[in-house]
Amino acid sequence: MHFLKLSPLLLLSLALLLQGVLGADPLYHFCSTTSGNYTSNGTYETNLKKLMASLFYKVPSTGFGVDSVGQYPDRVYGLGLCRGDVSSADCKSCIVDASSEILKLCPNDKEAIIWYDYCELKYSNDDFFGKIDTKYKFYMWNTATVNDSASFNNNTKELLTQVATQAYHSSKLYATGEKVIDDSRKLYGLAQCTRDLSSEYCKECLDDAISDLPSCCDGKEGGRVVGGSCNFRYELYSFVNS
């Protein structure tokens, strides 16, 4: 029996073709305006494609992976993170989607980041591993509002603070939780950091994100603060996989 051995880059290319009509839309993305551009078909682009192939293999098994490829000045650093409750198969699909979409949305940019509901993918020509990303952040919120905003906001902050504490004390820097807020409603929360951060930096990142609650989500039934190094989400319904 003969087996055809395919290179990682070719396997990633085939996966991208298969995912082309199946992928979900990204939540958000940023293309760097300060990191410069790379030349098409040049060394940086070659290294970037090798990096994407590496993350395609590394991330799904544990839900997180980092790698760097090449030498200065064409070295590229990358990170992939999947939501803590996502299966390996769904994680792989999300990373494939992200790899394809980020190159289309940010052509020739030396740094970019993209988020989906299930994953995040980032690359840069700067070594960002172990550092809190303060450059990239966005908010999302449920358009529905609550009547008792002051009480609801307090409950939301209490739940997210509790979940964040569990997250930065866990090995996966990920946690979920819930809180009964009255006879008919239960609040659900999630907090997660990229696993290149220390527990201390994870706490710092999540504390900063939670401090944005009044800006993003005052009186909203659900909301998220999503950054390059950490994120949280809360809703009045369960949104993670059991």
From TrEMBL:
Record-annotated membrane-spanning stretches: none
Chief place of localization: secreted
Keyword Amino-acid biosynthesis recorded: no
Localization: Secreted
CDD domains, per the entry: Gnk2-like (cd23509)
Alphabetized UniProt keyword annotations: Repeat, Secreted, Signal
Domain Gnk2-homologous: 26-128, 134-239
Endpoints of the signal sequence: 1-23
Domain of life (superkingdom): Eukaryota
Gene Ontology terms: cellular component: extracellular region
Protein family per UniProt: Belongs to the cysteine-rich repeat secretory protein family.
Protein name per its UniProtKB record: Gnk2-homologous domain-containing protein
